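Hello support,

Our group uses your service weekly, and this is the first time we've seen a run hang past the timeout. The protein is DNA binding domain-containing protein, excisionase family. I'm not sure whether the cause is the sequence or the server load. Input pasted verbatim:
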Amino acid sequence: MALMTVEQVANLLGVQTTRVERLARENLLIAAETDSEGKPLFNEEDVKRYKTLAERLGGL
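Update from on-call engineer: The timeout came from a worker crash unrelated to the input. Re-ran successfully.
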């Protein structure tokens, strides 16, 4: 399981980091764990599944 930072997720999804943080707060993108600074880390497979779903629903 590869973990991704907020910045990596934002780059993959093509959105700003604040959008990724909001998705995590709203439990639309679930963080697998947090780093030493308390920032969320996401499972790469979960992010890819979210991206596929978002594209099917009309985009991010």
